[in-house]
Write a structure and sequence with these properties.
Layout (H helix, E strand, L loop, with lengths): L1 E2 L33 E3 L8 H9 L15 H6 L11 E7 L7 E2 L2 E2 L4 H10 L2 H8 L20 H4 L11 H9 L24 E7 L2 H16 L3 E7 L1 H10 L4 E7 L2
Parallel strand pairs: 6-7, 6-8
Antiparallel strand pairs: 1-2, 3-8, 4-5
Helix pairs in contact: 3-6, 4-7
């Protein structure tokens, strides 16, 4: 970035002289003095580690990226000012309520609200935020993140409860309503009290990326912790989209946002 000497970011210049009387930017007060910099050059660096090296050695002046949480301490120690904000983005687990599997007593379990609530109580979203994003993310129970302001029930406090952490007891209570329990005491749940092989297996599909593998690993562990087998399936992005649109999935992880 190269500063334009004809314009100043502040109401006074470096000599303390008033340049422009300052007023808040409002509809009747549009600052027509132009930009505060003369030139902006975008240097596209696809590798995050190379981007961090570039700002550390002075090749670039500003750096932005959702994966820079891994380098926060390094950049702060080097004297950089760090500004963070929640993105208008959320990752979510899609449940295919039309899937015929898994089933129990001729009932498609993913179409049963009790089973879906059990999954919600089981998945530890707080752990995902802490371990995958080093705490630089927040768990969500709504499609409208907190930084949507008054549009978000998470912001206004209107949500009746939360599914932020794993609530194992509540998950098992929901499954018990469907007759699902650990009848043979082997730590895996069965839907048939007289058949030890009537255990339940769910397949979770996602794209193959390091951060997503971490997320899906925690989702699978959370589900298995309540006694349901969870198989992880990783595919390319086009395959994931095709499976989503065709309904050829049970659970799938996907991201969506407006930024």
């Amino acid at each position: 970035l190269r500063r334009n000497p004809n314009y100043y970011l502040r109401a006074i210049n470096e000599h303390g002289n008033i340049v422009v009387p300052w007023r808040p930017l409002e509809s009747d007060n549009v600052d027509l003095h132009g930009p505060y910099i003369e030139t902006v050059i975008y240097n596209v660096i696809k590798d995050d580690n190379e981007a961090v090296k570039a700002i550390l050695n002075g090749t670039i002046d500003l750096l932005e990226g959702m994966n820079l949480y891994q380098n926060i301490s390094q950049l702060e120690e080097a004297g950089f000012n760090i500004t963070t904000a929640l993105r208008l983005v959320f990752g979510h687990v899609l449940i295919n309520t039309e899937s015929s599997k898994p089933s129990a007593n001729n009932t498609a379990l993913l179409n049963a609200s009790e089973f879906r609530r059990a999954l919600a109580y089981a998945i530890n979203k707080t752990r995902i935020c802490e371990e995958t994003w080093d705490g630089w993310a927040e768990p969500l129970d709504t499609l409208l993140p907190r930084n949507y302001g008054l549009w978000s029930p998470a912001y206004t406090g209107e949500l009746p409860g939360d599914y932020y952490r794993q609530y194992k007891d509540l998950a098992l209570q929901e499954l018990a309503k469907l007759g699902i329990d650990d009848y043979d005491n082997d730590s895996w749940l069965e839907w048939n009290s007289s058949d030890p092989n009537s255990e339940i297996n769910i397949t979770i599909e996602a794209t193959d990326a390091p951060s997503i593998r971490n997320i899906i690993g925690i989702v699978a562990e959370s589900i298995e912790d309540i006694g349901i087998h969870a198989t992880q399936r990783y595919v390319d992005f086009n395959t994931l989209l095709n499976d989503l649109f065709s309904g050829n999935f049970q659970l799938a992880f996907f991201g969506f946002g407006l930024d």
